[in-house]
Amino acid sequence: KMPANINKAIENTVTVSRNEWKYDCDLKLDLDMTLPDVPCFESEFNQVILNLIVNAADALREAKEKNKIKSGEITIRTSHDTDYAVIKVEDNGTGIPPEIRNRVFDAFFTTKEVGKGTGQGLPISHSIIVEKHGGLLYFESEQDKGTTFIIKIPLKEEL
């Protein structure tokens, strides 16, 4: 792990992923400029952010196609407390249905149509954050309001 500027990493990932979301939604950044560098595997952290952006964009595209929302919006926020860098990836989609919430981190579980999703993105993201970084990855979702994925990465390396 190397100390990384998480805000800069997120900005880079947003730029790289632009074609995944630009036609379906707006993406806003609300980055805490006082966030200290975070010990992490930056490329793997970027993979997690990319996965969350792509999933949110897919959910928003689907919600728009079903006329559930007029315009899609993704907001990525960073903050920190005493122990953790906190990253939130929010969308204003239809939310994750209650009956599948306990399965979203299961390998090979996907709600996407055949040929679209592998069911690997969230399980791999969970492994990267929890096992490799000693952090937390969880979500809050409200039917017809949207979903927020929350990442917490320790600010100090465990020795």
Q: Give the N-to-C terminal Cα separation.
A: 12 Å
Q: What's the helix count?
A: 4
Order of helices and strands: EHHEEHEEHEE
Give the CA-based shape: globular
Biggest β-sheet description: 5 strands, mixed
Q: Order of strands across the biggest sheet?
A: 2-4-5-7-6
Structural class computed from helices and strand pairing: alpha+beta
Low-confidence region ranges: none
Strand content: 25-35%
Helix % is 25-40%
Write structural notes for this entry.
Helix content is 32%, strand content 28%. It is an alpha+beta fold. Strands 2-4-5-7-6 form a 5-stranded mixed sheet. Helix 3 runs antiparallel to helix 4. The model has no long low-confidence stretch (mean pLDDT 91).
Jot down its keywords.
159 residues, 5-stranded mixed beta sheet, two-stranded antiparallel sheet, globular
In short, what is this structure?
The protein has four helices and seven strands; from the N terminus they run βααββαββαββ.
SSE topology sketch:
Layout: E1 2-4, H1 6-16, H2 18-21, E2 25-30, E3 38-40, H3 42-65, E4 72-80, E5 84-91, H4 121-132, E6 136-142, E7 146-154
Parallel strand pairs: 2-4
Antiparallel strand pairs: 1-3, 4-5, 5-7, 6-7
Helix pairs in contact: 1-3, 3-4
